[in-house]
Design a protein that fits this description.
alpha+beta, Chitinase A, domain 3, four-stranded antiparallel sheet, 47% helix
Length: 354
């Protein structure tokens, strides 16, 4: 897989996935006046999360109005519903340690959303009922039947009328972007080729090692006796492998990493920097088919087997040209959207009240 990362798409059909929410709010314009200044991977592949930049704390109890965009109030209820939407998209509750960053990032996006919505009204953009119903039907298509769709609405504590109104607003914002930002964006093959030639490192499939492992897990606060017992178990399992036992079968029955145990201990391709250092160092020191000594990591004690080597490989331009064009078009769209939003901010009065 090529190593460059595609940017998120505009407009705001999905307010925020929590992985991107933690970047913090965008810079504010001079007219903004603040009142105050992941499902986990398999254990062996889990690395430490990067630190997120600090932001001003968000009060536990929000005021009724958390921001104003010109004459429009953004209410605490709207912000909370947007956070719930982000949680649904992320598939997990908001981590407590990211609350301030997530709330402020989502509030910043709500400000942008209302700026675009107000612009749609100035441009007299309207949404036809057929277009609206087509979008609603698309949502219904994600559920096996109408009963399941209605049950989900109840779970979200909303109604079909409310979803229809929110969808209408989303479509209005889409129209603003389509009419004011998208015209003129055209990335041709020559531009894509130039980008490819200038960034070969971004189109190289990473080299790495195919691996499988056994894990005997221990908790971070395990006692010395518990660690000794876990290491002893891992050592016994390693010896069984050396004596001819089938590694995959042993991992399936004995490994305490359920994400890989069901696949015979396979963790797939491991590339440099992907795993915790002790695991990586042990794996990359092995020859194909070799089994490691017992390796200790924060997750417990591993026995690792290297099952294959993949060398770095340059992806051909023909294979990736369309992806490059899409990527560059998205980058241009995002840059233009940010410029357009800044122009709306510059002529607006924005108050952040939390």
């Amino acid at each position: 897989m090529v190593t460059w990362v595609r940017s998120r798409h505009w407009p705001f059909l999905a307010l925020l996935a929590m992985a991107t929410a933690c970047a913090g709010p965008a810079p504010t314009s001079s007219k903004e006046t603040p009142a105050d200044e992941t499902p986990a991977a398999t254990a062996s592949l889990t690395s430490e999360a990067p630190e997120v930049p600090p932001v001003n704390p968000v009060p536990e109890v929000l005021p009724d109005v958390v921001a104003r965009v010109n004459d429009t109030a953004i209410t605490a209820d709207e912000l909370e519903r947007a956070v719930r939407s982000a949680e649904i998209q992320a598939g997990q509750p908001l981590p407590a340690q990211f609350r301030d960053q997530v709330y402020r990032s989502i509030l910043d996006q709500l400000v942008s959303f209302h700026l675009l919505l107000q612009e749609s009204e100035l441009l007299s953009l309207t949404i036809g009922e057929a277009e609206l119903e087509e979008r609603i039907d698309g949502m219904r298509g994600n559920f096996p039947d109408e009963e399941a769709f209605q049950a989900q609405l109840a779970n979200w504590e909303t109604t079909l009328d409310a979803v229809r109104e929110e969808t209408r607003r989303d479509l209005q914002v889409e129209q603003v972007i389509a009419s004011q930002v998208l015209p003129g964006i055209d990335i041709d093959a020559e531009t894509a080729r130039a980008f490819y030639d200038e960034h070969p490192e971004q189109f190289t499939r990473a080299g790495g090692r195919e691996a499988r492992h056994l894990l005997i897990g221990v908790s971070p606060n395990a006692s010395d006796n518990d660690k000794i017992e876990a290491r002893t178990r891992a050592t016994e399992l390693r010896q069984q492998v050396l004596d001819g036992a089938d590694f995959a079968e042993l991992a399936g029955n004995q490994s305490e990493d359920p994400g890989s145990a069901e696949n015979g201990g396979s963790v797939g391709l491991v590339v440099p920097g992907q795993t915790v250092p002790p695991f990586e160092q042990a794996l990359f020191a092995l020859k194909e088919g070799e089994t490691s000594e017992v390796v200790e990591t924060p997750f417990g004690f591993h026995v690792i087997q290297m099952t294959g080597v993949q060398e770095p490989q340059l992806v051909s331009f023909e294979e990736t040209s369309l992806e490059i064009q899409q990527f560059l078009a998205t980058q241009e769209q995002q840059a233009r959207t940010e410029t357009f939003l800044q122009s709306l901010r510059d002529k607006s009065t924005i108050e952040i009240l939390i």
